[in-house]
Write a structure and sequence with these properties.
disordered N terminus; about 35% helix; globular
Amino acid sequence: MVERGGGVRHPAPGVQGEEVSAATETEQPTGCSVFYAGAGDEISERPCGGTKNVRKIAVFLLGLFLATGPARALERGPASDLMRQCEALICAEKERRGLFDPEADPGRSGLIGVEFSPLTTSLGELADKRAAARPEMADAVAEYLRRAGVASGDWVAVNASASFPGFCLAALCAAETLGVHVQFVFSYGSSMYGGTQPEFTFPVMLDLLNASGLLRTRLRAVAPGGAWDRMGEVLLEDPLPTLRVLLDSRCEEKIEAAGLAEAIRRRLEIFGETPRPIRCFVNCGGAWTSMGLSERVLEVGYGLLERPVSVPQGNERGLIFEYLERGVPVVHLLYAKGICRDFGIPYGEE
């Protein structure tokens, strides 16, 4: 049940994969888990305490879809050019390691993982992972950052799960070409087809890109991710032996918090270390630490978020709401199809 906007252990009746327009729900006893169709591409399983109003969620999702204006095609920019270079290097290394699957990754991004591994925490839609890995996505993120008022020399915070390596790379390439500094925290839990190959994780890919001189951003910290940011639930295999090896292999700080509130607090401390205040918060994927426990995260939309009239309170509300309440712009990278539609990026075409 790892991703707050990204996946469940078992699909809701009649629902396949992540892309949904609505979900059904029956009355549940307190302490159970219930299925939601989130504002992102994936279904989310959340702790519940009684009947939830799924009609409200379905109406919201329909409105989200219909309210989107006509697509405005992006002009090819330096961010997408850089992402193409990065992907070429990643894909070549993945081939060298014998890990590349041309059927799953016809675009040769090198960023598409396997369906199941010890790191697979939730359901995932292959088309979403391919869309996030399109080089044009970096130009889209650069546009979001410009709209947020981010300029050269500013600092942005990036909190990422492993579910969308494409969004991770797009954010870093956008920042690189804008001259923006990044404080980057990454967690290993991933939905299907994301960063699910323990032999070649996104931190290792970033090491390669750092060594090549293509990207300056380096990891600040790594974490388990998944449910409660402790890899609490996965689809098949016990993740802990693999996770332990991955964490111990890194020289960065390991965030291994006792609970979700502590995991969120430590990230806020890390993001507060920058020499200048964080100008924008970027979320990649559906990490619990970003999404929090409030159902109101389903209402925030995607892309560059507007500050809501009010935000939920509590120390488990997630980083998205933490920064929105502080008046810091938030770029929410989870709903791949919506972002593609807004910027005229092909979706489901390889």
